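Troubleshooting log. The previous run stalled partway through. Resubmitting the same two chains, unchanged.
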Amino acid sequence: MSEFDTELNCEGLNCPLPVLKTKKKMDGMLSGEILKMTSTDPGSVNDVTFWAKLNGQFLMSQAEDGGVYTFFIQKK
Amino acid sequence: MADTIIKQEPENLKEVFTSGYAKLFEQQWPMWVGGILFGILNVFMFAYEKAWRVSDGVRNWGNWFFNTIDVSEMIIIEPHLYTTSILNFGIIVGAMASALLARQFQVRGAPAREFVKALIGGTLMGIGSVLAFGCNIGGFFSAISALSMGGLAMMAGLMIGAFIGLKLLVWEIIYLNPVSSPVSRKKSGDLKKNQPLAGTLVLLAGIGLAVVYDDLDYSIRGGFLVFGLVIGLIMQRTRFCFVRAFREPFLSGDGSAAKGVAIAVIISAIGFSVLKWSDMKDWEDSVFAGFWIGSLVGGIIFGIGMSLAGGCASGSLWRAGEGHIKLWVALIAFALSGSYFREWMAESGWIMKLGESIFIPDLIGWKMGLLSICVLI
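Second attempt completed without errors. Output:
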């Protein structure tokens, strides 16, 4: 999983900033484009998952490595 | 078919233990589980000694600091003997142990602007908790449980504050330059393997300290330390967040946090009512004189503060335990501003003018009081 159109770095930010910034970023993207978001707050995992489900955005993958969470989300 | 079913059966004890461990410590618990547990715990604490509070313990640390650097000469109970302070300490340690057990502990830095927000947020929480005679726990959760009108006023204030706080955050994202966050990233893969062991040790050390309190004839204080450890553990596992409960309805429509808090309030309100009605506890217990100006204004200020800081009073404690430096900053600001502002309020006499204490059953009776709280929540 390495192809993406836009990148967003939310490392060091706490709830609710990662999901809030993701939302703003996605608002400016075209349908089908993929966003790569990285964060360090464990709470962002649930936040992003729930937000994606609620808004019909496609959470393609989500992984954790050394305390950094990486999400790939495709805009609907 | 038969094969797959057999394969799902754990083969030996180790596997049973591993899967049980994963269920408990690698997956997050639902918020409503936390709601039920906190409701019950608060009733136990009320029966044991006093209702759950947080802010006076944080303020106690501020008082102690000002005394230590000779800025003030307040007459205080030392932090290691002050029950709420011990409880708060327990929450931090419990959350740290829990985060370690879940391999989620990490010292987490943050961009500079986050620390500014933590300072402002913590300061506002300190001021708000003085005005409302408690934070989201003492002024809202325990106060409503104790059927105090002030609790309801603070709930309204917290909602307004959380809404304003959310607007501020959105405004920050849109209009301020994006934060360049060169946060140093350390790979801690190897460290994480040993975290469960460290977590167990931290937890045992906490329990050991409670036993020491008990030996020194401070049994009740030891009990509060254990309550704190348990609360910290549950908070970290459920990521119990009052900010989220007040904010998500505006942000995403996710009601799970609000439901968790509602369950907690209803359970503990019923428990408190039984204790008070049966005269095991004073009717006036945990009913404070903040209705309605102090509670409402305090709630609004506190609500904005907790949104900026990224954690309320209890939320800051458990996140500090999880390793977020930002929340340590928020706690320090909370302690200092709370201590300073409380002194100023007391000296200027304003503290007597915040409102009155109204015990709901005095107005409309027990049954109606309890029923209306449950319906309202």
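Takeaways: Residues 6-74 of chain A form a domain with the Translation Initiation Factor IF3 fold (CATH 3.30.110.40). The two ends of chain A are 18 Å apart (CA to CA).
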